[in-house]
Amino acid sequence: MRTRIIVEVSLAPEAEDSPATTMLPFLWRSEHGGLRVILNGGLGVFSDGNPWFGNAPAFTTNNPLVQNPAIGANTGSRATWVESWVEFGLGGVTQIGNSNTALYGAATAIAPIVRGQDIFRDDPRESLDVEKAYIGLLWGSDNRAQSANLFLGRQNFTLNDGFLISQFGSQWNAGPRPGIYLAPRTAQDFAAIGTFKLEQWTATGFYLNPNEYEPLESNTRVAGLNLRYNFSDQFYADGTVIQVPESDTRYATPSGYLGTREGLQTYAAHIRWADRTLAPGLWTEWEAAYQRHADFPMSAWAGYGTLGYFARDTTWTPSLSYRFSAFSGDDPATERYERFDALYSGGLSEWLQGISLGKVLRPENRFSHRVRFNLTPTERLNLTLDWFLHRADELNNIGANPAIAQLSSPDLGQEISFTGRWAISDRFYFLGLIGVAIPGEALKSAANGNASPWTTLQAQLFWTF
After folding, report:
1. Is the pLDDT of residue 5 over 90?
2. Is residue 201 part of a domain?
3. How far, in whole angstroms, is CA 438 from its chain's centroid?
4. What CATH number is given to the structural domain containing 65?
5. How far apart are CA 180 and CA 65, in angstroms?
6. Which end of the chain has fewer CB atoms within 10 angstroms, the N or the C?
7. Torsion angle, CA of 48/49/51/56, rounded to 10 degrees?
8. Whole-angstrom Cα distance, residue 419 to residue 435?
9. What range defines the domain where residue 136 resides?
């Protein structure tokens, strides 16, 4: 039997909220495959009031990403700048003979540019780098109940919603690398990914070399396996095992360095449930993770629980959700190391947990509350209001920003943001954001009482052709 395989190669802008469509014509196309030009881009205008809570030296001195590390970022009371990027290259797919197997791949370069005073520096910066360079093999059964997808090279990878590994958390888009807010770089330096589906079961194995800023390269490698079972379209559960076979990242305690990330083992369980028949509009999601280490006593944990309601049949389809998340901190009075390593957690919509506070706070040693209200006035317009409240698990916070390595209070701060997402057309997408972060007692103390609310105004346009 002759089978035709159609593979959609995702060529969208790599912003977390951007669409995934492609409009450029194929350079070559037949019933067995095609080759097309990849051309994506973004433009953003940003203005932050009181960046670093109006006391940039307190939170950025000796930071190698700033222009003058000895004195910290020179942002003043406002930082305003423009970022832009263009990604261009080729992507294609071809069926192998008349089989159910296809070979696909892509190669792109990325050219970001920044002008103005951002939150780290004000020197003009631009670069031209390889972004994607991968080759893959895809197989699917006639009834689509079984499939296999293998690829190697520079490509994106996010595990679930980015709680442990996000394509944004594993990249460096700051300092000398232009694009701190647009975050144009999303590909790993190297990724080997295999995804296998058998009926309701899906297994994904991965090996990652994150794309880090070379002078600060940690030589970290991450390997893992995720196994998922779909009970229905809206109800699934999965488990993950992650190992770190190589890393120079060190864990510190008040008495000195304990060891490195190499040997870290993470075990996670995740479930998401919704049932339109049993409880229309209600949904919940939970994940728990535990960490140990092969070379020293470690017992760390993290997790979250979300409960939400989606009024699907109401005008503007409003939804409301509450999420509590926790990443354990280290109690120096115990023999075990208890600070959870958040690995490459990230992403604006989910795990940055505050567009401004996220620049100062690491995910570790943090309890966070999030209330989210969402409206969809039209099919192309989405509006989201987020409120975050953050508190520390332990006052010992070594491993975070040096200014807050020892906390005077568990009160870290709160943040509220309003985000608008507008799909202008199939080619253009707009993202706007207004936010204010209010420092808690711990951050005020770190700034010797001189800390003001950090506001941000952002307007971003993405395009795909």
Report:
1. no
2. yes
3. 23
4. 2.40.160.100
5. 11
6. N
7. 140
8. 9
9. 26-464
What is the sign, positive or negative, of the torsion defined by CA atoms of 186, 188, 194, 200?
Answer: negative
Q: Which residues contact 105 (CB under 8 A, 6 or more apart)?
A: 91, 92, 93, 134, 135, 136, 151, 153
Measured torsion, CA atoms of residues 102, 107, 113, 118, in degrees rounded to the nearest 10: 60
* H or E segment and range at residue 209: strand 201-209
Number of domains in the chain: 1
Instruction: Give the H/E segment covering residue 146.
Output: strand 146-154
Q: Are 142 and 129 in contact (CB under 8 A)?
A: no
Does residue 8 sit within a domain?
no
Q: How do residues 34-85 score in pLDDT, each as one tens digit? A: 999 999 999 999 999 999 999 999 999 999 999 999 999 999 999 999 999 9
Give the burial string for 270-282 (b: 16+ CB within 10 Å, else e): bebbbeeeeeeee
Tell me which amino acid residue 419 is. Answer: T
Give the list of residues 6+ apart from residue 27 with CB closer than 8 angstroms, or none. 34, 35, 36, 37, 90
In the predicted model, is pLDDT for residue 18 greater than 70?
Answer: no
In a domain, 445, yes or no: yes
pLDDT tens digits, 207-225: 999 999 888 899 999 999 9
* CB neighbour list of residue 276: distance below 8 Å, 6 or more residues apart: 234
Vertex 425 angle, CA 421 and 431, to 5°: 20
In a domain, 19, yes or no: no
The residue to which tokens 């999420």 are assigned = 323
* Interval 223-273: pLDDT, tens: 999 999 999 999 999 999 999 999 999 999 999 999 999 999 999 999 999
What mean pLDDT is predicted for residues 444-451? 95
Nearest one of 176, 185, 177, 160 to 13, comparing CA atoms: 185
Token pair belonging to 158: 């996010």
Give the count of alpha carbons within 13 A of 441, CB side only. Answer: 8
Confidence of residue 332 (pLDDT cuts 50, 70, 90): very high
Strand partners, 198: 146, 201
